[in-house]
Amino acid sequence: MSALTRFLGDSPFRVILKLLVVSFLVGLVMNAFGWSPMDVLYGIQKFFRDLWNLGFHAIDRFLGYILLGAAIVVPAFILLRIASYRK
């Protein structure tokens, strides 16, 4: 097996053929939705900008969800461990 085939995971011809088929299908879907590559890039940029603008509020909400879940999960875990310890 050559280094190129090992790197690509298949023969170069088959990889090119697979890439062409997938590129065609993705292009078809993008055209159906009216998307362009720049729309995708702008969407990614907007996602990170919105994430940055959320700032610590997002972290606060995330930690709040963890604490809310832990209020039920940790006591249940301890009770289950105690119940299984007696056996």
TrEMBL record:
Keywords: Membrane, Transmembrane, Transmembrane helix. InterPro entries: DUF6460. The chain crosses the membrane at residues 12-33, 62-83. This is DUF6460 domain-containing protein. Residues 51-86 form the DUF6460 domain.
